[in-house]
Amino acid sequence: MAGKIIQWDLMPSPSSIDRAKLLARCLNDANFTRQILQVFQEQAPQTMVKLREALEAGVIADVRRHAHTLKGSAGNLAASGLQAAAARVEAAAGEGNLAGIREALPDLENQFNLALQSAVAISTSLK
């Protein structure tokens, strides 16, 4: 059974998630949208922790893998800022550029926090 149709234009405040694209990807289904956002809220913080741990341990291949995972999750949510930031970390890791990873990490963390806040706000509004 499909969820209720989402009225994005009634949701004020800027978001790091492109609501129109997310809506289209979720076929206007509020329940499906909520599920996608819930998975992100549950899994993405763990991925960020693993990425930081891999960086601290100097395991660049794992940094790249976790950045790639975040990039894909962000793409699913239409969170282009997070997607671009994760792509920069992934590219630096692919080059073995530890300094580049460290330089790109603050933006990744910022974009991650913005996307997580947006995901929570959108999920809450769908109840």
What are the key terms here?
disordered N terminus; mainly alpha
How would you describe the overall organization of this protein?
- The protein is an all-alpha fold.
- It contains five helices and no strands.
- The chain has helices at residues 19-25, 30-57, 60-77, 80-94, 98-125.
- Helix 3 (60-77) packs antiparallel against helix 4.
- The chain is elongated.
- The chain starts with 18 loop residues before the first helix and ends with a helix.
- The model is unreliable at 1-14 (pLDDT under 50).
List the helices and strands in order.
HHHHH
Structural class: mainly alpha
What is the mean pLDDT? 89
User: Which word captures the global form?
Assistant: elongated
Number of helical regions: 5
Query: Roughly what percent helix?
Result: over 70%
Mind summarizing the main beta sheet?
A: none
Query: Which stretches are low in confidence, meaning pLDDT under 50 for 5 or more residues running?
Result: 1-14
Beta-sheet strand percentage? under 5%
